[in-house]
Amino acid sequence: MSPCPRPRRARGRSAGSALRCPAPRMKTGHPERPTASTDAAPITPSMDLSEIQKLIRELIGKLEKRAKGFSPDVLYLRLMLEENRVRSLYHVSITLTLPEKTLATQAERHDLVDALRDAFAEIEEQLQAHKAILRGEPFRKRRARREKLRRAQ
């Protein structure tokens, strides 16, 4: 193993194919601000971890009530939470797999609670729209509208 962790090719004609070791980089910046290194302190959300888990369980329970018509064996919910420490953003991704369709949504906010609520609200809207299609509501509404137009003429 070489003493240099990342050898690089030297620039210029005289160097040829010789390798050189870059100088170690010093951390600079404001002493109170964390840098983008691995030892930076994580940004804590506005709520405690147990409160966030409680909120997620509450939102999943609400979604389960909306999906009562489907067998629980065929439903699959995937929830991913990501934190961007540099921009202090939270990215929430939800995928709900149903027998006939897969519903997905993403939300990105500076507040974790807002991102969770927005993502779950969007997936609930998609679920309601899918259930309406399964019930055949768009076709009945269209037929009723056509009949109204015929009567008006």
Instruction: State the secondary-structure class.
Output: alpha+beta
Rounded to an integer, what's the Rg over CA atoms?
27 Å
Fraction in helix: 25-40%
Give me the count of strands. 5
Count of runs of 4 or more consecutive helical residues: 3
CATH class of the domain at 49-141: Alpha Beta
Q: Major β-sheet, in short?
A: 3 strands, antiparallel
Q: Could you say which overall geometry the principal axes of the C-alpha atoms support?
A: elongated
Main sheet: which strands, in order across?
3-4-5
CATH topology of the domain at 49-141: Double Stranded RNA Binding Domain
- Corresponding CATH superfamily of the domain at 49-141: Ribosome hibernation promotion factor-like
Unreliable sequence segments = 12-43
Beta-strand content bin: 15-25%
Overall pLDDT score: 76
What's the gist of this structure?
With about 150 residues, the protein is an alpha+beta fold. The protein has helices spanning about 50-65, 110-135, 135-150; strands at about 10, 20, 75-85, 90-95, 100-110.
Kindly describe this structure:
There is one protein chain. The protein is an alpha+beta fold. It has a domain of 93 residues: Double Stranded RNA Binding Domain, CATH 3.30.160.100. It is built from three helices and five strands; from the N terminus they run E-E-H-E-E-E-H-H. A three-stranded antiparallel beta sheet has the order 3-4-5, covered by helices on one side. A hairpin with a 4-residue loop joins strand 3 and strand 4. Helix 1 packs parallel to helix 2. The relative contact order is 0.10.
